[in-house]
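Human:
I keep going back and forth on a fold encoding question. Comparing notes only helps if you start from a blank page. Show me how you would write down a chain together with its backbone fold. Write it directly below this note and I will take it from there.

Assistant:
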Amino acid sequence: MSFIVYHPGLCLRDEIFKPTFDFMSNLFEISSADNDAFFWSEPVPHLHQSLVIPSMNSLALSGGWGHMLFQHKRMEAFEIWFSSYHVKQRRRFKVRADTPVIEFSFLIHNSIVQRIHTPYDNWVEETQFNIFYLPYVEDQVQFEPGLQYTTLDVHCTTGFLQRLQPYYPEILQPFLDAIAAGHTPSKIFPHHMFATQEMVNLARRILWLLRQPGVDVLALELTVQELLCSALECKTAFELGGRIVSLSRISQINRISTALLKDLTEEPNFRLLSQQAGMDETYLKKLFAKRFHKPPYSYWQKHRMHEAFTRVVHTNDPLTDIALDMGFSAVSNFSKAFKKLYHFTPSYFRK
């Protein structure tokens, strides 16, 4: 989704790459219907200080329309791009570059209208992702005013995907063949998919690892690989009731896995969630249990108690506050539920 951060030949070459102002400004043809000006610079302290990750290379793009921050970390077989966008007025930006790229694209925050090698607008929603091969970049993105957008993208080499190919041969081999042909854009999923909560957590862990004073390279590589594997798992076919579950259903049940955890204080309204997903409530619960190996209420309860456990062990918050924040009417009820899962009461961990 980071429509301006493609660079030449990562899928073909492995040289060390560090973006510069001249490099970025000469590489891309960036334009807008409003004839905006674009200026590359170092991150601007009063705009970007809270966003900058010291372990990453950073460049800012700004103008009267707003500002963007692109942060980049080069590894042996892939690059991580963490990008932030803030536009003051509605804008549709166009970018063109003669650069091939393999990209895992993950929209972390807010939703956008985007075109990638198509004459049609696509509505890409928060937590949606896809994996692309683009022989050249031809992209349009429309931003709404006053909103903050963030993306996490992984640009990888063919070698990186080839190492995963034995685990997902039916998914990756046609994609690798398209890359080898080198002429036609290709993508793993026909449409953007909603990520699972596990994928959201892995993305957060990648950013957490990058923010540490000494980046654990091995942990970072393994986490990126796990994120890509989790994405590919979303295309692994499975059956429910003797029928193959469609990708659109998988995408919607992934979305439910993140929606369930947005509010840990109120028990989930499965009737409303099923209506939003366009499914029968009974079917939704069966599909969720099949996909995540746990009924949706148990899934929600496990995460709620994990959040409570984290606060009990790692904060000094009063137990009464934690109980009420987690939706319990009394500390006694909270302690009973806590002990059932962790075998000790919350007060035991506060001794």
The chain has a mean pLDDT of 88. The longest strand covers residues 78-87. Residues 182 and 337 are 56 Å apart (CA to CA). The domain at 21-211 is CATH 2.60.120.10 (Jelly Rolls).
